[in-house]
Amino acid sequence: MRHIALTACLLGAASLLAGCDALGVESASQITAKKDAEGRAIGSACRHAVRSIEDCFGGYPRAGKAAVFAGWKEMDEYMRENAIVGMPAEPAPTEATPAVSPKAPDGGKPASASRTS
Predict the structure, then answer these.
(1) Could you write out the DSSP letters of every residue in the chain?
(2) CA 15/CA 20 separation, integer angstroms
(3) Which of 1, 16, 67, 99 is the most buried (most CB within 10 A)?
């Protein structure tokens, strides 16, 4: 009798926890759908930013190539149908190297360093 009651309690608890989304455990199908949606979003963003599909693949190596391509293709079709012009992304600002100042005739010091007030 004790064994049957314990088994029933365990089965009841397992069935309650199996449907509980509050645990934060995602199933394999949910993870796959999420990665696919992220890849499509990346591809769409690359197409809207007027980036080639090769640049998109290189910039996001962890995204699935099939999903990225599908998103890029969908955005390309949408932009062609609705005559939408792409918005090229501005290049990231690069750090300018400091300009080498010419040496002053008074021993190699820059002109600003040789002045005294």
Answers:
(1) -HHHHHHHHHHHHHHHHHT--TT-PPPHHHHHHHHHHHHHHHHHHHHHTT--HHHHHHH-TTS-HHHHHHHHHHHHHHHHHTTPPP-PPPPPPPPPPPPPPPPPTTTS--HHHH---
(2) 9
(3) 67
Q: Contact at 8 Å (CB) between 44 and 75?
A: yes
Q: Can you give the pTM of this predicted structure?
A: 0.55
Q: Read out DSSP for 51-67?
A: --HHHHHHH-TTS-HHH
In angstroms, the CA 103 to CA 27 distance is: 68
Residue 44 tokens read as: 């769409």
Write out the two tokens for 29.
């199908």
